[in-house]
């Protein structure tokens, strides 16, 4: 089975095209021109190239949709539809030659994410979902895991970024979490893939503070359509406003909230 609608086809095509550049640049990583946007957050020539290809392709197919993209910011057009783009999620990995990063594109309609694609070009893994039509990994239906006890789970987290003001808080949270429950915690450096892996049942939960909308937009619909939960650290729906995100399978959300707040 495969997910195919007009918008999904547009997103898949744009991602496949942009990924060619990304793969080529990853192979030539040493030659990349790197400029520093802020400590711990590099903007590479690749980020910009990939972003341009994505935006050109998406605009060609949907000239009236608005755009929010990490490097160029807001391009306002149509009120109702908006592409939310992270051209490379996992830039630090990319720059260090670690083959774990993704292109992430979400489509928002009336403030709700209705389509999402997260594409890992190195592993050729495409996570894609559309509201009401399920979540797929390379055309195979995905489901979140069914583990119900935190002690049996693997949990992912990310950050803090070098420049982030709440570095101590984030480290405290991590320490607190791992002292409360003996559970393997992993940090792989790409929030979008972290969320996609929860959707695929590879891990059971993910939490992080202070992510940006483009880090999580595509993942929101992908994990929900796979049967997972997206909340803030309090188990509420305010993850965008509160800038804390907790993504879990359908069973461990409550236990995660308890541990994060205890
Ligand atoms: C980052 C990655 C990383 C997360 C950071 C993000 P970028 O995105 O998703 O896993 O810990 O908070 O900013 O900068 O590589 O697009
Ligand atoms: Ca990102
Ligand atoms: Ca990025």
Description:
This protein is α+β, with helices and mostly antiparallel strands and 262 residues long. 35% of the residues lie in helices and 27% in strands. It has eight helices and 15 strands. The protein has helices at 6-27, 45-61, 91-95, 167-180, 191-199, 213-225, 239-242, 253-261; strands at 34-38, 41-44, 66-69, 73-75, 81-89, 102-109, 112-120, 125-130, 135-137, 140-141, 155-157, 185-186, 205-209, 229-231, 244-248. The strands form three sheets. It has an eight-stranded mixed sheet, sandwiched between helices. Helix 4 links the parallel strand 11 (155-157) and strand 12. Helix 1 runs antiparallel to helix 2. The protein is globular and about 50 Å long. The mean pLDDT is 91. The protein binds D-MYO-inositol-1-phosphate and calcium ion (2 copies). The site of one calcium ion (CA) has 4 residues, from strand 5.
Keywords:
single chain, 262 residues, alpha+beta, eight-stranded mixed beta sheet, five-stranded mixed beta sheet, 15 strands, globular, binds D-MYO-inositol-1-phosphate, binds calcium ion
Give a brief rundown of this model.
This protein is of the alpha+beta class and 262 residues long. It contains eight helices and 15 strands.
Task: Provide the gyration radius in Å.
Answer: 17 Å
Sketch the topology as an H/E string, one letter per element: HEEHEEEHEEEEEEHEHEHEHEH
The gross shape turns out to be: globular
Q: What fraction of residues sit in β-strands?
A: 25-35%
State mean pLDDT (0 to 100 scale). Answer: 91
Helix content percent band = 25-40%
By secondary-structure content and strand pairing, the structural class works out as: alpha+beta
Could you give a short account of the major beta sheet?
8 strands, mixed
Low-confidence stretches: none
Euclidean distance between termini CA atoms:
43 Å
The bound ligands are: D-MYO-inositol-1-phosphate, calcium ion
Strands, total number: 15
Number of helices: 8
Biggest sheet, spatial arrangement of strands: 4-3-5-6-7-8-9-10
């Amino acid at each position: 089975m495969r997910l195919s609608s007009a918008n999904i086809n547009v997103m898949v095509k744009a991602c496949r095209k942009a990924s060619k550049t990304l793969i080529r640049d990853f192979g030539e990583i040493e030659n990349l021109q790197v400029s520093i946007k802020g400590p711990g957050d590099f903007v590479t020539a690749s980020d910009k190239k990939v972003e341009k290809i994505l935006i050109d392709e998406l605009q060609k197919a949907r000239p009236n949709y608005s755009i929010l993209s990490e490097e160029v910011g807001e391009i306002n057009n149509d009120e109702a539809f908006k592409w939310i783009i992270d051209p490379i999620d996992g830039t630090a990995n990319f720059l260090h030659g670690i083959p774990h990063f993704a292109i992430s594109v979400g489509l928002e309609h009336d403030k709700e994410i209705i389509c999402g694609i997260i594409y890992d070009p190195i592993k050729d893994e495409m996570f894609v979902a559309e509201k009401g039509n399920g979540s797929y990994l390379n055309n195979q239906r995905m489901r979140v895991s069914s583990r119900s006890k935190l002690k049996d789970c693997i949990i992912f987290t990310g950050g803090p970024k070098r420049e982030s003001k709440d570095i101590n808080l984030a480290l405290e949270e991590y320490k607190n979490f791992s002292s409360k429950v003996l559970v393997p915690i992993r940090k792989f450096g790409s929030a979008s893939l972290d969320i996609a892996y929860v959707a695929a049942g590879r891990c059971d939960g993910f939490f992080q503070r202070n992510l940006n909308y483009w880090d999580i937009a595509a993942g929101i619909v992908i994990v929900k359509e796979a049967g997972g939960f997206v909340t803030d650290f309090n188990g509420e729906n305010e993850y965008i406003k509160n800038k804390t995100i907790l993504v879990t399978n359908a069973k461990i959300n409550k236990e995660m909230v308890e541990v994060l707040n205890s």
